[in-house]
Amino acid sequence: MNHNHITDNALVLYDGAMGTYYRWLYREDDSLLEEVNLSNPDRIKEIHQAYIKAGAVRIKTNTFAAFPLMLKQNADQVKQMVLAAWHLANKAIYELKAQETVKVVADIGPFFVLQSGLADDFQTESQQAYLDLVKIFIDVGAEEYLFETQEQLTDLIPAIKLIKSYNPNAKITVSFSVNQNGFTRTGLRLKELLAQAEQTDEITFTGLNCTLGPTQLGQVFAEHAESSKFCFFGPNSGLPERDLGRGRGGMEAKYFAESCQKAWANGAYQLGGCCGTNPLDIRALFDLFKAQKPVLSKRFDSKLELKVSEQSGSETEISDKPESGKAEIEGIKITEKTWYEKLLTGEQIVAIEYDTPTKANVETYLEKVAQLKAAGMDLMTIADNPNGQTRIDSALMAARIKRELDVEVLPHFTCRDRNIFAIHSLLLGLATCDVHQILAVTGDPIPLENRNQIKSVFNVNSQSLLRYISQLNQDMPRPFILSAALNVNVPRFDMELKKAKRKVESGAQVFLTQPIFTERGKENLMLAKQELGDQVKFLAGIMPLVSEKNALFMKYEMSGIDVPDEIIKRYADRDRDQAEKLALEISREIMADLQQVTDGFYLITPFQRTHLTAQLCREWKVKKN
C-alpha cells in the first residue's frame, strides 16, 4: 500500500505511548527512557510487540528525546541508544513475522533545552540537533519519519530536506502539539504552521498529537481539516491530571476510540495514541475503524461548516430571552443584603457560573446574564480561560456586568497566565468598578513528560495569591472577599483538606467545590465544614449533565470530576429534550441531598444553556421562600 498519497483509503494505525506506558509497567525504573534501549531491551521490545498484537502497523522507535543536550549524555552514548531503539523495533516485528504489514517509524520529538544567549544561537543549536539525529536514521535506512509533538517548523526544515536528499521516497510526517485554540506553546498558530507545511514539498503528512484528549483535539483537527496533508491524529488518553490514564481498561479504551470519530470524519486516517494510551486503546481503534473508509473529501470543501461538538464545551449559544426585564421573580422578596452577608446570616445562596464567550460579540451573553438575574441568582461566577481556552477576560467582563446589569460577579483569577504585578493591577481596577470579590485558583497546569518545555507563568499559586490579596486588603477602602476552590472528589481528601486549611490561613473565606455526584463527595464536604469552622462558607458544585457523551467527557477528560457509571447509564438512548429533563431531575436530587450540609449552591452552566441553571435557581428560590 502506498502511503505517499492522501487518497489512500485504509486505516494506518500507529502504536500508542511508549513513555507513560513503560512508567506504569515498571514504576521502579526511573532511568532515562531512551537508555532503557540498552539497559532493559526486552522490555522495550515486548511493548512494541504488544502494540503490534493490538493491530498497530506503524511502530515508533523509542527515541522521543534522543538529543545529547536533553539527555545530558555525549553524542556517542546517544547514538548507541538510537541504534538500539532501531534494532529493537525491527526485532519485535521480525519475531512476530509481521515484516509484510508492519513498518518501523523513526520517532523524533521536540528539541528543548534551557535557552541562553541570542535566539539565533538557539535556532542554530536546535537545527543541528535535528540534523545529527536524522543522520543516524538515514545511515540505518529509515524510510518513514515522525516529527511529533512539535511546536514550530522552521528548525526542522534542514533535517527534513536532508532526509529527502538521501531518500526521495521517504515519508515524513510532522505532528504539532497545540491547545484548544490552535496555538502552540511558543505562540504559533496551527493554521500558519499547516500552511507552511503545505508549501514544503519534502513533508508528506501533517497532524496533531499530545496536549489534549481525543474530544478536544478532535475538535481542533476538524477546524483545520482543509489542509491536504493533514491526516495524522494521536491524542492523549485524557487530561494529564488524571494520571495520564495509566492502567486504563476496556471501558476507557472504548471511549477513547469512539471519541476519535470526529477527527476520522474529517480525514484523520492515520491514528494512534499519545500520553496515557496503551495497547487496549490501540486495539479499540483497530476494532472500530478497521472496516471503515476514511472521509477524505471534506478537506477539499471550502464551504464546509463544522458543527461544534457538544463534548467540546463550545456549543452554539441558545438565545433564551428573559421572561421579564425586571431583576426579580414572583414570590421572592428582594433584600439589600450582599451575597456574602446572606451567607454569614445563614441564608443559602445560589451562585451560577457562566463563562464568557470566545468572541467579542456579547449581546446574547448579556441577555442571558439578565435571565439568570431574573431567576434570583445571588452571585455570578466567571472562570478564567478554563482548560486553557481563550475567552473574554473574566475580570473585564465582571466589571461590565456589574456596571450595566448591577449583578454581583465573582471573577476567577488563575495564576497560570499572569504574574503578581498584572494581578495586582487588575485587582485595583476591579475595586474601582465596584467588584469586590475574587476566586483564586492556581490554574490548570500544562504537564507532559518532564522533558517538555512549560511556558505558563505560575508566578504564584492560589495559596500565595490569597495571602498577597489579604495583605493588599489592609490598604483597600473595601476589602476583597476571598474565595478558593475545594475538590471534594479526590481520592486522598486528607491532602486536599490540608491545602484548604492553608488557604484559610492565607485568607480564604468561601470555598466553591467541584461538582458533586457521589456520596464520597458529600462526606468530604461535611468533613471540610467540620474541620474548617463555622466562619468558612461552602458552595456545593452542581453541574447538569446534558447527554451521555457529556457525562462520559466529564468522567474521562475533565480533572476533578467524578461521575458514577450509574448516572451515565441513565442518559442512554435519550434525545436532547429528554436528557435535559433528566439533567434537571438529577440536579434537583443532588441539591436536595446536600441542602443540610452546604451554605449554598454553585450551579455550573453547561454549553451556554442558561435556561437549565436559571430553572434550577428559580425553583430553589421559590422552594426556600
Structure description:
With 625 residues, the protein is α/β, with parallel strands linked by helices. It has 2 domains: 23-300, TIM Barrel; 339-447 and 455-624, TIM Barrel (Alpha-Beta Barrel), CATH 3.20.20.220. Helix content is 41%, strand content 13%. It contains 23 helices and 16 strands. It has helices at 19-25, 36-39, 41-54, 68-71, 75-95, 119-140, 157-166, 190-198, 214-223, 250-258, 261-265, 279-289, 339-344, 363-374, 394-405, 420-432, 462-473, 493-505, 519-532, 548-557, 565-570, 576-594, 610-624; strands spanning 12-13, 58-60, 103-108, 144-150, 171-176, 205-209, 230-234, 270-271, 349-353, 379-382, 409-414, 437-441, 481-486, 510-515, 537-542, 600-604. The chain has an 8-stranded parallel β-sheet. It has an 8-stranded parallel β-barrel with strand order 9-10-11-12-13-14-15-16, surrounded by 5 helices. Helix 14 (363-374) runs parallel beside helix 23 (610-624) and helix 17 (462-473) runs parallel beside helix 18. The longest helix is centred in the first third of the chain and has 22 residues, at 119-140. It starts with 11 loop residues before the first strand and ends with a helix.
